[in-house]
Amino acid sequence: MSSNPKKIENRYVNDLRRFSFFQSQFFDLKGVTVPLGLSVVFLALVGLYVASTQNALGEDWLIVVIAAIVGGYMALNIGANDVANNMGPAVGGRVLTVFSAVLIAAVCESAGALLAGGDVVKTVSKGIISPGGDVGVAEFRNLMLSALFAAALWINFATILNAPVSTTHSIVGGVLGAGIAAAGFGLVNWPTMAAIAASWVISPVFGALFAAAMLFVIKKKILTVEDRLAAAKVWVPVLIGLMAAAFAAYMAMKGLKKIWHPSVIEIFVYSVLAFVASYLLSRPYIRRRVASLENTRKDVNSLFDLPLIAGAALLSFAHGANDVANAVGPLAAIVSTVGEGSGIASKVTIPVWVMAIGAFGIALGLGLFGPKLIAVVGEKITRLNSPRSYCVALSAAVTVLIATTLGLPVSSTHIAVGAVFGVGFLREFLENPNKRRVRPGHKLNATAEDAFNSRDYKSVRRLVRRRFVLSIAAAWIVTVPASALVAAAVYALLQLL
Fold this sequence. Notes:
This protein is an all-alpha fold. It has one domain.
């Protein structure tokens, strides 16, 4: 007999632990399997539909089917990753539940894609490469397919890592890598690439500064005064009007740009009218709400709920109208080169069935996989409430407007996430005045009491999770080169087939 026999109860405890572990793994696998299964069904249906409707294309029908499946895969990943930009703050601020956020986003994203997505897009994203030249029709098809697949694969990987990345930058990297593989470095428009690289820094920093500035104003004018309700009656209608004006301009310049082209003066007039109308309508509403509230931060914060929901819905509509082209633009470019044997064009018409794949794919992707990134942006970076979420949404709209006016290529993803960080770091700054890390003094003390009193006793409250700063920044930096390398490899493989 062994000198140290194992206790019988320990064996049972270990068995229970093993069972609990395998049970948890089973449920985790079940939670992943169902969305993956539905995604596969969606892509299969896309392939079957395209194959049944494009049989007149002859030997080119297969490339169209493959491109459609890859475009659907890209749309799924756009919905899974990018929905966090618009709905994350509202969920984090406890204004919307995850279910209601996903439902609103799905409806608005689909509506934006189908109603305002436009019927014409550039075949080559953001002017990264010039079509034609040394690139033939067959090489162009492989280039677009490689770029689309590489971008979708990278966004999928980033979603698994809980990193919100730019869809536009992903497709830009894919086009860049495949273009270099197809015709060398001379095909690349390097000034445009330099501007895009600059936007990696410009957009999140500007978004963070604007959101922090707005939150600072709200705190000083409303939340930290003695009579919050009286201050709210004065300032909340102004803030609602400002948000309405910003989103009116945003919808005119971005959300509806592919079907409506107003002048700068018209956009300004519409923004002023939106401000005045929202201000006049919100004043009686806020007065009625204030009459039933108490003079607490929680009650005053609730006044921002309704404008925040409206802002999140409008951002989702505009996102669907803009980013559907990232999913189906390369697909439309491939479709334009088959059938009648047309050559490579700088702009192409998107068929209705192609736009539908993008719209439904985005909606399905955000419904199946979107909640994961919503939780990261809305809850895990820093704690949000209604005023903080309002600042994030307003920052996203205003920053995009300013960048568009100045001709700067910026990412809405970078802006929204940067705004969340800006709000979090401002909270740290305001709640930690003259505080440093706990550390002992640099000299010997006569007594223990002197030693205790001579050290920096008050420590800093960390209100932003640093690990997300590093992981998200790293994902942003490697987005373009990673998708470029994958696209180049896929292009080389397709050329061998």
